[in-house]
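# nightly structure sweep
# worker-07 picked up a monomer target from the shared queue
# config: single-sequence mode, recycle default, output format = structure tokens
# input follows
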Amino acid sequence: MYMSKADKMVRLMWRIFAGMGGLFVGIALAVALLQFQNFERRVAVQAQIVDFGNGGYPIVAYEAEGQRLTCQLNFRSSSMHSGQPVTVYYRPENPQQASVKEYLFPLIFGGIGGVFLILGSVGLAVLRRGQRRREQVFYHGRRIKAQITGYGLNYSVRINNRHPFILTCQYYDADSNTLYTFKSRGIDYNPSQFLAGKEEVDVYVDGENYRNYYVDLGSVLPNVKVVQG
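# output follows
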């Protein structure tokens, strides 16, 4: 089955979205796991915000290993205020350095990755569904001969600053006295020289359902390699 560069580019785009999303989610999970393991080896203690230092980062006071200690945290929030109790965590071998649990980075990074992953997965699922539908019609549908009525640029699609061509054709069903019009998938090049002298193109339809169809470009156009300057 013919697949245009536009189809390939769209599929590649959704794969990149899904791949980047999966990578972001994986990194976020790895960072969250490392942070969790890090805090598992620390001792939790109640502290109190006593002041704010450079950059607005809170300074907390707490007791650890029999000592009254103060430490400036590397995390701040607009909701923090003097006198506020907070839970801090320190290493027994270094009680002077304490920190709070915060998973802001993995949450944001993972959230962005999740959006990309969902968008990419949904996009790929839609493409696969459409591809399966076309394959079903192509391999199991009814073939008809449609009259080629013309070709032109598809201005609704733009790939690398170029619009793909599409081929239009018609089929008259005498039994129902109905004229059907079909449009092909995108064509990467100007098909005029290959359509010279050709009047018909194969179209596959799903039984009597002419809305579900596939225009077989391979029946009139060669599978040529396109090199754009």
